[in-house]
Amino acid sequence: MTNMFTAYGANHRRLRKLVSPAFTKRRTDALKPRIEELTATLLDRMSEAPEGRTDLRSAYAHPLPMQVICELFGLPEEKRADTARLIEANMDTTITPEQAMATWQEIHELLAGLVASKREQPGDDMTTALIAARDEEGSRLSEAELIDTLLLVIGAGHETTVNLIGNAVHALLSHPDQLARVLGGEIPWSDVIEETLRWAPSIANLPLRYAVEDIKLPDGTLIPQGDAILATYAAAGRDPLRHGDGAARFDIARADKEHLAFGHGVHYCIGAPLARLEASVALPALFERFPGLSLDESAGPARLAESFIGHGYRTLPVRLGGVS
């Protein structure tokens, strides 16, 4: 894969610069009315759920960010279900090497088709903008970089936000005393989002980085040049040396919520403002519409996704309770 996730140095800066226009503060802020519109539509549909029961992930946490990122990159409606299926498979670390290769090939065929259609019929979207960068100045973006960049931004641009929304809802419903403080206006939703990112980051482990030179750690450990490095964001967020003896507790009132959920340094997630915006719209709107929302224990426990990389729920059954 050749995109800004795997690139280093000047090559990374070149690729990141091409994608940056999609995620500027101005463009992100401009998306808020559309996010609010999509949120209201999804909540209306949820209110019609039989017996007031539904899977929050499939009904709400997944379709909202999926719709936003697909509209941003011009992915047609008829391709979105396949895109979601393939990205979930790409994050599944339990599949066989043969299944992984088949998924990889299918993803690239789908995205190559998107590029071909946008070349034929350009639109007001970021895929068209990236194609222009590729076709107008061929030395700036190769065809492989174009496809792999689309995979990165469309995949990471929705799957991580799906997990953020789902993890926050599950954490609040599992800690009703803290939910009451949020609904009572004592603690802002921004604190819920940041504590969720610390306590249950959407990406738990990120393989792999490689040492470009020998790295000596403060305790004397040496990571030799060329060695693989696994970034374990989930462990960092619960480090008692940073967050004290209560590091493993979900606590929206904690003072220090600093985390690495969006990475660090030059590889800091370019879509972080969009993820925070979507969560800041989705979470209060959900609990305002369904103040009696609760976990549906009769449907069994929420099921985590089969992934060593991502951390989120594959199913999140809930009871909607009363509708306001």
Automatic annotation (TrEMBL):
Q: Does the keyword Metal-binding apply?
A: yes
Q: Which GO terms describe its molecular function?
A: heme binding; iron ion binding; monooxygenase activity; oxidoreductase activity, acting on paired donors, with incorporation or reduction of molecular oxygen
Mind telling me which Pfam families this protein's record contains? p450
For this protein, the record's Gene3D superfamilies field holds: Cytochrome P450 (1.10.630.10)
**What InterPro entries does this protein's entry cite?**
Cyt_P450, Cyt_P450_B, Cyt_P450_CS, Cyt_P450_sf
Q: Family, per the entry?
A: Belongs to the cytochrome P450 family.
Q: What is this protein called?
A: Cytochrome P450
